[in-house]
């Protein structure tokens, strides 16, 4: 019987086999996570994800958001006189608004042609009520369709609001339905007032 002969591998073949074996062993011993994430210089998954993430739009605190808006307006106006800017005055006014809106008590009664409010509070809230009640009257004009009369009360202020046309029953009902804070919110003078305060003006 004739025995088949097998050729002996060459030195080059043996070297290649050894190299492949070493590579195979290295791959088996390397964690899959490391194999899957091979980073090149400057590559970052965090920055790519951040680019797709929507930017936040809420300031988180209303007074802060109001001040930030005013700052943007002042920055955008080349005529802004920064030597007169007074954001602290605006902050104090916003504190007054917060006290009057959240911490005051309001008693309401109907009067001919309108409504009367007795707004009261203690400490800083009482003082804030007086400041806002007196100041608001200077912003009301004939175009608003009503009058605003305010005087100090022992713990705050008394405010009487009447329509300019006493025969307009719907307008009277509107004032009574709005209540103190609703009437206080009428018009767009608030944002103008805020900008004036921050600019160092004295609108009242």
Give the helix/strand layout:
Layout: H1 11-29, H2 32-36, H3 45-52, H4 62-76, H5 87-103, E1 105-111, E2 114-120, H6 124-137, E3 146-153, E4 156-163, H7 169-184, H8 189-198
Structural account:
The chain is an alpha+beta fold. It has a domain at 82-198. It is 51% helix and 15% strand. It contains 8 helices and 4 strands, in the order αααααββαββαα. It has helices at 11-29, 32-36, 45-52, 62-76, 87-103, 124-137, 169-184, 189-198; strands spanning 105-111, 114-120, 146-153, 156-163. Strands 1-2-4-3 form a 4-stranded antiparallel β-sheet, with helices on one face. A hairpin with a 2-residue loop joins strand 1 and strand 2. Helix 5 (87-103) packs across helix 6 and helix 5 (87-103) packs antiparallel against helix 8 (189-198). The relative contact order is 0.11.
Low-confidence stretches: 32-36
Structural class of the secondary structure composition?
alpha+beta
Strand content: 5-15%
User: What is the ordering of alpha helices and beta strands?
Assistant: HHHHHEEHEEHH
Summarize model confidence as the mean pLDDT.
83
Shape: elongated
Number of helices: 8
Q: What Rg is obtained from the alpha carbons, in whole angstroms?
A: 37 Å
What profile does the largest beta sheet have? 4 strands, antiparallel
Measured distance between first and last alpha carbons: 123 Å
Major sheet: order of its strands? Answer: 1-2-4-3
Number of strands: 4
Helix content: 40-55%
What's this model, at a glance?
The termini are far apart. Strands 1-2-4-3 form a four-stranded antiparallel β-sheet, covered by helices on one side.
């Amino acid at each position: 019987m004739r025995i088949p002969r097998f050729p002996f591998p060459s030195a080059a073949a043996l070297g290649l086999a050894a190299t492949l074996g070493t590579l195979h062993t290295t791959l088996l011993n390397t964690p899959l996570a490391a194999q899957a994430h091979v980073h090149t210089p400057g590559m970052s998954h965090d920055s790519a994800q951040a680019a797709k993430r929507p930017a936040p739009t809420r300031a988180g605190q209303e007074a802060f958001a109001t001040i930030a808006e005013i700052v943007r307006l002042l920055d955008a106006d080349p005529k802004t006189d920064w030597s007169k800017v007074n954001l602290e005055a605006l902050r104090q006014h916003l504190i007054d608004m917060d006290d009057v809106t959240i911490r005051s008590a309001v008693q309401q009664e109907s009067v001919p042609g309108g409504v009367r409010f007795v707004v009261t509070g203690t400490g800083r809230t009482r003082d804030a009520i007086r400041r806002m009640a007196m100041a608001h009257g200077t912003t009301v004009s004939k175009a608003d369709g009503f009058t605003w009369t305010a005087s100090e009360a022992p713990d705050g202020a008394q405010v009487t609001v009447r329509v300019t046309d006493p025969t307009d029953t719907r307008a009277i009902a509107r004032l009574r339905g709005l209540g103190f804070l609703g009437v206080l919110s009428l018009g767009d003078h608030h944002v103008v007032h805020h900008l004036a305060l921050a600019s160092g003006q004295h609108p009242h």
